[in-house]
Amino acid sequence: MSSRLIEIFEDGNLVEKIKKRLPYLFQLAESESSRAGKPGMEVDSVRERIVVALLIYKFGEANVETEIPITEPEVDAKLFGEPVSIKTITGKGFGGVKLIWTVDPQKAKEFRETYYPYCDILLVQINWKDVGSFYYIPLEVQKRLFDKIGRQNYIKLPKPGTNPRGVEITKEALSALVLDSEVKGIEINWQRTKIDFDPYKRWVDLWQEG
After folding, report:
1. DSSP for 35-89, written as a single string
2. What is the CB neighbour count within 10 angstroms for residue 18?
3. 6-208: in CATH 3.40.600.30
4. Helix (H, G, I), strand (E, B) or coil at 166
5. Each residue of 34-80: pLDDT tens digit?
6. Which of 64, 56, 53, 57 lies closest to 28 in space, CA to CA?
7. Model's pTM, two decimal places?
8. Which DSSP helix (H) or strand (E) runs through 123?
């Protein structure tokens, strides 16, 4: 079955909404996850939820599964039963995108020896004050590149003695993936808007209830 994700990129009204709303929503995510002006680690989870919410908005709650077991490390949601991985990256380049989060060097090695692409990817390239993109990378495209360049060139292990928290897809592999003719992309102008955000207000309001 070809993935229904392509429908997002063929829906003109939704494409315009994504261009307009995604920078604002991701800016909110940063505000919600920031301490002393710097976004914390949890910002990735909030961004993922924003993209999953987009899937629910487009396809309906009944068709998007969000309770994914921890045993499926790369899967963030299932759309009509098919696994979807949501990844975000900040900046112009394509380095640093994680395939799995682990600090165990042995687990990282095992992962590289057994990994094979198994789900569609939605990748958001955030590039504040510049242009970035929202990509749909079909599973077949990933498999084709993986078979062509091999696991050593596709997967980057953490450097011994460092604490990078995970195994990455190589910058070269991801750069090649987004250029594939079967990959869909929405160009986004990442401009910030003025937001008055108080991270405590919602919780104070809830304390005041009842």
Report:
1. ETTEE-TTHHHHHHHHHHHHHHHHH-GGGEE----TT-TT--EEETTEEEEEEEE
2. 21
3. yes
4. strand
5. 777 777 788 888 999 999 999 999 999 999 999 998 778 789 999 99
6. 53
7. 0.91
8. strand 120-126
